[in-house]
Amino acid sequence: MLQVDNLRKTFLFFLLTIVIIGCNSNPAAVVTREPPNSIKILSHKVEEGETLFSIAWRYDLQWERLALINSLCPPYLISPGQKIALSLKISKSEGCNNEEYIVKAGDTLYSISTDFDVTLKSIADINGLKSPYRINPGEKLVISMGSSSTIHQKNMRPYVESVGRDLSPSKPKIEVPKYKTDWEWKWPLKGSVVERFDLEKSRKGIRVKNELSKQINPAAPGNVVYAGSGLRGYGNLVIIKHSDKVLSAYANNEDILVEVGQSITQVDPISNLNENQVVYFEIRRDGSPVDPLKFLK
Predict the structure, then answer these.
(1) Would 101 be classed as within a structural domain?
(2) How confident is the model over 36-88, as pLDDT tens digits?
(3) β-pair partners for 247
């Protein structure tokens, strides 16, 4: 019996020695694999009730750039089922009333944008120019007059009609937006901030809990460019355009009291609070979220 035990111990020791030698002489190869490519959404299929502004808001894009990419002309009408490209490529050959300009000595991109009454950014985008926007005499530039991001275009409406809207002649014409400049930001309602802006935590706005009125007022005068419930996570949402660059949003409402295309002041109610008595509020500049608490008075 003792002899059998000794044989077992000898065998186990011999087997362990072989394993250790094998590991030292033939280390396991480390396989490096590239991480899988993240899925990038390149297009969006328009759904009932959506506008160019709501689509831009969904994907954190500038509405002006979205119009340029898709060669959309004022008043930027879109239809259910239409495919909206979200890529950064802008076609020079397609557009609204494109014009060609040959750069002269002394020209700058700013001076050209002023002459054509368009924004510098729109010229830079369609011609693929990057800051500091250097141009040379003799260079050809495409100027997109119809899809410019500026509201200086005479007799053009910079908002988007609601999808599926009846545009028959019997319908009254929607008021042409006129943007005021002599205003300051005001709180959409009197209350306390229960959630603050924090992009690291994907908080693109603030949440304010009501203390007095159930109605929401716009934080600044402007024009309604979206009113509906088509954006996931926002509930009943109102988006207001205050200038070429600035928009604000009011989400998770119980009722919406305004329509797309309506001009409003800071005393006009736009919605009623939901049962939680909390409104979600965002401000975006050039398509990017900014901290509302830096603007509200």
Answers:
(1) yes
(2) 554 578 899 999 888 999 999 988 888 877 887 887 877 788 899 999 998 75
(3) 241, 284
